[in-house]
């Protein structure tokens, strides 16, 4: 079997920064096409303005990576599955949970691979953190995820619209890590969401979760951080403190600090190739479920208007 | 095996109006205790102010029916499962999706039955509606659920708090029916939620869903209806129109109208007895998922203050 002929759909920042290099660096894939309303393609690779135009063309593909905003993702994924293509979904996998459930059923019927990717789970320290926590007694968890939205999402209007997640767009990365490394299920007990008076989505959130043993998990999300940025997870255990810093890249355990090179997107594409080879899907909706729960259960406060 | 000794927890309106008569009318159950912060028990039946006091007592029970507001349901269910009791959950099964998922895992570990009840699925016309629609081509669905909150939820402050569902408290009944009778999965495309300026939860909602074939499903929820109340579902098909009126009680198919007696709660308790006998659980979170999606994806409008 030759390499998987993949098309990248939605040629924004994340496609250029992460997807294209990861595809270029993995011999299991070959970039067969790009799709974008704009003309931001890749030299020498067929470019289309819509996915429909690509599937109607004579360019042969086996898979698509969907990097568009979540509000537009379902229709693209459904079209791809109808055509028997394997689908790689950027995070979050959809704008709603029910549409992701519908895609899971669709992929099962189509017999193709659906992969809901969570890139932060492939951050360098995460696998070791998960292994270290697996049989430890956890006494408390703190997540501090504070960044400057003007730096990371300049002018991205969709992220503030209904179905864009606001500060949960980065926050869901933290949730994708802690759902992966904490051994017990957890759920929201109380939340406060701060929403700018001129926007639909929150700019900050204070979240109190509890796990099934009653352990408290506190999460502090804020998009108004200037200066040094914080993407830290601290897990207190009976055997000492685990720290994951830099979004999961740097792991500190009692007595040692582990640093590895970044391999988030290469890790995701290696996983996608494995899933395709094995004829399996991998769709874990827990991070999006926790975000939906925060919108469902959380108290909303109106705060100062936000202007880019 | 004798009858299932059941305790009813949360002796509010729904417990008195529905649960107690359904339990009294089913020989598979015997009412063994009641639990409520108030003294609103039943003559001749042991009454406790907390579930903990009941499980610490010498009153033997096999199961609990939890009729408290959803914000308090998880801890009660977890305590019951820890004690090896079967659990009947009023709708909605919890204040968040993740806590319900945690209970499912807990019940599986405990080896007891967990039943997330949706009483409207047992309305007289629903089973026939489901059978009639199973292999028909559906071209459109309309749900009109308009009632007077002052009549149905007088002074229920919790329903307006975060985690109370506002107008989705009745609306989730309609969702429990349409997730049951429509053959294809569906999901939210667009929603507008109207929230009174002095409350946390919506008083009205306009919801546009689509199914996986692209069929439109429109839902009109409103708690400000005075005069005649509307709980109607209209399904257009290639073979004519199906109407479910009165919350599912009256079914009209092309050429015939079917009326049956109400049997919602007797139906639920018959189902619960079957599940206990078979050692199974039944937890369908799709109705709550669609509500969470509406909070996640919907546009919020502030509307006039609401006073009881």
Name the chain pair whose interface involves the most residues. A-B, 32 and 32 residues
Query: What strand line-up does the widest sheet of chain A have?
Result: 14-13-12-11-7-10-9-8-15
Beta-sheet strand percentage of chain A?
25-35%
CATH architecture of the largest domain in chain A: 2-Layer Sandwich
CATH class of the largest domain in chain A: Alpha Beta
Shape of chain A: globular
Can you give the helix content of chain A as a percent range? 25-40%
Radius of gyration of chain A equals 20 Å
> Overall mean pLDDT score of chain A?
96
What is the end-to-end distance of chain A? 48 Å
- CATH fold title of the largest domain in chain A: Dihydrodipicolinate Reductase, domain 2
Number of helices of chain A: 9
CATH superfamily of the largest domain in chain A: Dihydrodipicolinate Reductase, domain 2
Enzyme class (chains A, B): oxidoreductase
EC number (chains A, B): 1.1.1.48
GO molecular function (chains A, B): galactose 1-dehydrogenase activity
Protein name (chains A, B): D-galactose 1-dehydrogenase
Description of the molecule:
- The structure is a homodimer of 308-residue chains.
- By secondary structure, the first copy, chain A, is of the alpha/beta class.
- Chain A has 2 domains: 4-116, Rossmann fold; 124-260 and 292-303, Dihydrodipicolinate Reductase, domain 2.
- Helix content of chain A is 31%, strand content 29%.
- Chain A has helices at 13-24, 51-56, 73-82, 97-110, 126-133, 149-152, 168-181, 264-278, 286-297, and strands at 4-9, 29-35, 47-48, 63-66, 86-89, 114-116, 138-146, 186-196, 204-211, 216-222, 230-237, 240-245, 250-253, 256-259, 299-303.
- A 9-stranded mixed β-sheet of chain A has the order 14-13-12-11-7-10-9-8-15. In chain A, strands 3-2-1-4-5-6 form a 6-stranded parallel β-sheet, with helices on both faces.
- In chain A, α3 runs parallel beside α4 (97-110).
- The longest helix of chain A has 15 residues, at 264-278.
- Chains A and B meet through α4, β8 and α9 of A and α4, β8 and α9 of B.
- Chains A, B: Its EC number is 1.1.1.48.
- Chains A, B: Pfam families: GFO_IDH_MocA.
- Chains A, B: Keywords: Oxidoreductase.
- Chains A, B: InterPro entries: Gfo/Idh/MocA-like_OxRdtase_N (IPR000683), Gfo/Idh/MocA_oxidrdct_glycsds (IPR050463), NAD(P)-bd_dom_sf (IPR036291).
């Amino acid at each position: 079997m030759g390499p998987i002929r993949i098309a990248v759909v939605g040629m924004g920042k994340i496609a250029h920064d992460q997807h294209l290099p990861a595809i270029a660096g993995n011999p299991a894939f070959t970039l067969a096409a790009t799709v974008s309303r704009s003309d931001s393609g890749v030299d020498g690779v067929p470019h289309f303005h819509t996915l429909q135009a690509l599937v109607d063309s004579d360019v042969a593909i086996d898979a698509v990576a969907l990097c568009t905003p979540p509000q537009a993702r379902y229709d693209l994924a459904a079209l791809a599955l109808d055509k028997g293509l394997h689908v790689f979904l950027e995070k979050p996998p959809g704008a709603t949970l029910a549409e992701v459930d519908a895609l899971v059923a669709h992929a099962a019927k189509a017999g193709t691979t659906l992969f809901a990717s969570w890139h932060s789970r492939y951050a360098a320290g995460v696998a070791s953190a998960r292994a270290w926590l697996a049989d430890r007694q956890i006494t408390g968890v703190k997540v501090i995820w504070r960044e400057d939205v003007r730096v990371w999402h300049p002018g991205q209007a969709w992220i503030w619209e209904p179905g864009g997640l606001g500060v949960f767009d980065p926050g869901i990365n933290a949730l994708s890590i802690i759902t992966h490394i904490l051994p017990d299920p957890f759920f929201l007990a109380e939340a406060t969401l701060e929403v700018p008076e001129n926007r639909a989505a929150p700019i900050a959130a204070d979240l109190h979760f509890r796990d099934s043993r009653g352990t408290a998990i506190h999460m502090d999300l804020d998009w108004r951080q200037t200066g040094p940025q914080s993407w830290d997870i601290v897990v207190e255990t009976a055997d000492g403190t685990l720290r994951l810093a830099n979004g999961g890249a740097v792991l500190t355990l009692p007595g040692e600090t582990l640093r590895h090179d970044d391999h988030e997107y290469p890790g995701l594409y290696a996983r996608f190739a494995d899933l395709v080879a094995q004829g399996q899907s991998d769709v874990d909706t827990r991070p999006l479920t926790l975000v939906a729960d925060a919108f469902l259960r959380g108290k909303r406060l109106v705060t100062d208007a936000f202007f880019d």
